[in-house]
Amino acid sequence: MAIIGEPLDRKDGRLKVTGRAHYAAEMAVPGVVHAELVESTISAGTILAIDTDAAKGMPGVLAIMTPDNAPRLKQVKPAMQLVPGPALQDKAVSYNGQNIALVIAETLEQAQAAAAKVRVRYQQDEPIIDMDAELGQAYVPKEFRGGRRPPDSQRGTPDTAFDAAQVKHEATYTTPVEHHNPMEPHATIARWDGDRLTVWTATQYVSGAQETLSKLFGMKPDNIRIISPYVGGGFGSKGNTWPPVTLAAMAARMVGRPVKLVLERKQMYTSNGYRPRTIQKLKLGAENDGTLVALRHDGFSQMSMGNFGEYSEPVGLPSEMLYAVANNAVTHRLVAVNQGLPTYMRAPGEAPGMFALESAMDELAVKLDMDPVALRLKNYAETDPHEDKPFSSKVLRECYRQGAEAFGWQNRSAPPRSMRDGRMLVGWGMATSTYPVNRMAASARIRLNADGTVLVSSGTQDIGTGTYTIMAQVAAQALGVPVGMVTTRLGDSTLPKAPVSGGSMTAASVSNAVQAAAEALRDKLFGLAQADARDGFSGVQTASLRLDRGAIVAGDRRLPVAELLARGNTDFIEAEAESKPGDEKKKYSMHAFGAQFAEVRVDPDLGEIRVSRFVGAFDVGHVLNAKTARSQLIGGITYGIGMALLEKTHVDPQTGGYVNANLAEYLVPVNADVPAIQTIIVPNDEHTSNPLGVKGMGELPMVGVAAAVANAVFHATGKRVRNLPIRIEDVMA
Ligand code: MOS
Q1: Phi/psi at 629 (nearest 5 deg)?
Q2: Does residue 239 line the site of ligand 1, with CB under 6 A?
Q3: 605 φ, ψ to 5°?
Q4: Which ligand 1 atom is nearest residue 237's CA?
Q5: Collapsing DSSP states into helix, strand and coil, what is residue 328?
Q6: Which end of the chain, N or C, is less surrounded by CB atoms within 10 Å?
Q7: CA of 411 to the centre of ligand 1 (A)
Q8: pLDDT score, position 733
C-alpha cells in the first residue's frame, strides 16, 4: 500500500477554507481582555518619562504596563530565544518601534484609543542608521551559528591563487532588509490559572516558547502549556519567542484576566525580527577552461545595537561546499545599527548568499565565454570540499540536466539582448540551489483504537506546509490502514517533543518519529499476537507478520486487532518513540540541491521586468506528499521572485523608522507577478540522510531564484544588477 508520496489533499484544507481552523487570535477564551503596544518613535536614547495620566482614566482601561511597573523577568543571558530588553525591563531605546509600553483594556478599541494617549519623553542620542557608512566598524560575531563553528573558514591559499588566476571576477552584491510578512499576524492569548500559564500563540516552536517563558518567568516548563494548532505562515518570524508573547503573559498576570495581544501589520515590522541587510564581496578566479582556482566570499550583515542577543546572516556557507575549488575563504562580519534584532528568514544565509555567489558565477561565465550550466558542471563537487566528506546523496547533475531540458536551455543564444519576442527583450538565466539537510530529535505517539481508527500526535507545528497530512500518511502506511482512518494532533507542548519548524527540518524529523512510533506499535501488536497461543501466531517470526486493514496477518491467517484488544480488555493500544540523528552527519555532508531556470521579458522602453517562465528541478530525497511538496516548491520560488524584483523594507535615514511597513508599500509577488512554474523532483532513492530519506524542501526552492532572475535580466538587457531588488530604473536604457 503506497500512501507515502501520494498527492493527497491537506487534512486541514477544508477546515481552513471554511473558517473552522481556529488560529491563536481566534481562540474563544472566556473573559479575555485586549492589549495594545506602544512603540518608541526614536531610534536611540533613553526614556525619561512615560506619562500615562490621560490614558489611565479612559473607558475600559485596566492597566498600563511600562518599564516603571512591569514585572521583572529573570535575568538571562541574551540569546535569540530570549530578547528580554524590549519586554519593558529597562528604559534604553535602541531602535525605532521598540516595544516600550502595553495598554490593557476591556476592548481592543479602548486599548487602542488609550495607547494613542500615552506620552513619552526621551533623551535622544544620535542614532546610527546607515550600515554602509559603518562598514569600517564591522566586528567578528561572538556566537556564529550558536557558537557551533567559527565565522571564518579557509582552505588553500585563496588570495595568491586569485592573484595568479587567468580569469578573474570581483564584485560586491547587496541585499536589503526584508520582512517575513506571514498572512497571519503574530498573536498571543495568555491566561494564568494560579501558577500555571496557558498560552495560545502563533509559533513555529511550541516547546521553544515553553522553554523561553519558563526561563524568563523562572517557572517549571511543565507549568506552561503552549497551544498552536494552526499557523498562518512564519518564514522564521515565529521561530523565536519574541517580546510580545512575553508581554501578553506579563500583562495577564498584572490584570488577573486572560490577555490577547494581536500585532497590527505595522507592529509586525518591529517586534519579530527581519532579514538583515547584507553586503557581500565576491572574488572568483579561474583557468581559461573554467576551472575555479580561487573563491573568496566576505559577508557583512546588519546587527542591532543593544543587548538583545546576536544574529549573523550566514551568507558564505554555501560558498564553502558548492564547488570543487581548492583555494577558498569565507568570512562573516556584523555591522551594528539602531535597528531591532534581525533573525532568520526563509533560507537565511543561503538565499542572500547564493544571490551573490550565483550572480558572480554568471559574471565569470560571461568573462570565460562559457555556458553557465557548463561552468557549474566543470566545477561540480563530487564530494564536499569543505567538510572533506562524501555527500549523503547528491543528484544535482541530474537536476541541471532535467531542468535545462524542460526549460529548453539548449536554444539559448548567449549574447545579451540577442533574444526578443516582438519588441520585448527576452532573457534566460540560471542558478544553483542548495540547502542543508537538517534533522533533530523528535517524538511521536500513535494510538490504534479497537475500531481501527488511529490517532498520531507530536508536539510539532504545521506552519502551512502540510505536517498534519504527512504525519497521517506515514502512520497509515506503516500500520496498513487507510489514511482516512488517521487523525493527527500537533501544536501543543503537552504532546511528545519535536523541534522548531525551521531549518526545513520538520518533515525529516517528525516523519521519522512517526515511523518509529508506528514500528513500536506494530511490534507491540505482534508481540501480543505471538504471546497468544489461540491463533497460531505464537511460533511465527516477526518478519513474517504484517498489518493489513485492521488485522495481523501471517500467510492466510488473520487476527483482527479489535479482537486482540477485546481479549486484553482494552479499547486501544499505544506506543511512543523518538527518532534522532545518529552519526550520519559525522560521516556525510548532507544537502538538498536544485537547478533554477528563469525567463524574463523586459520592456526595452519602460524597463518593466516580468518573469515569464520558471523551471526548478530539485534533489529533495524522498517526497512524503507530492501535492504539498509541489506547493512548497512553488511557494519558495514565488518568494524568490519577490526577493529578486520586489521585496525591500525602506528605512527612513532620519528617524530609522520603516516607511513602508504595510502590504500596500512593501511589495510581495501577487498572482500577476508569478508565471506558471514548472517543478521537477529528480528521483533520489536515498536512505542515508535519515531512515525515510527525507531531505526537506521548505527553504531550498527559494535559494538561487534571485540569482537566476538577475542573470536572466542581464541576458535580456546587458545590465548587471548587483543590488536587490532589481528595479525598473536599474535597467532603463
Ligand atoms: Mo525558517 S527561516 O528556518 O523558520
Answers
A1: -65, -45
A2: yes
A3: -95, -40
A4: 4
A5: strand
A6: C
A7: 37
A8: 66
With a 6 Å cutoff on the Cβ, whether 342 touches ligand 1 is no
Nearest atom of ligand 1 to the alpha carbon of 500: 4
Ligand 1 in contact with 346 (CB < 6 A)?
yes
DSSP state of 91: S
Ligand 1 binding pocket includes 502 (Cβ within 6 Å) = yes
- Residues 6+ away with beta carbon under 8 Å from 584: 392, 590, 688, 689, 690
Distance of CA 488 to the CA centre of its chain: 22
Give the nearest ligand 1 atom to 502 CA: 3
Among candidate residues 640, 724, 714, 53, the one with its CA nearest the CA of residue 367: 714
Q: Give the predicted TM-score (pTM) of the model.
A: 0.97
To which H or E segment does residue 374 belong? helix 372-378
The yes-or-no answer on residue 184 being catalytic is no
| pLDDT tens figures, 136-166 | 999 999 999 988 899 999 999 999 999 999 9
491-511 per-position pLDDT tens digit: 999 999 999 999 999 999 999
Q: Does an H or E element contain 294, and which?
A: strand 292-304
Low-confidence ranges of the chain (pLDDT < 70): 1, 78-85, 733
Residue by residue, what is the 3-state secondary structure of 457-493?
ECECCCCCCCHHHHHHHHHHHHHCCCHHHEEEECCEC
**Neighbouring residues of 666: CB distance < 8 A, sequence distance ≥ 6:** 179, 181, 647, 648, 649, 660
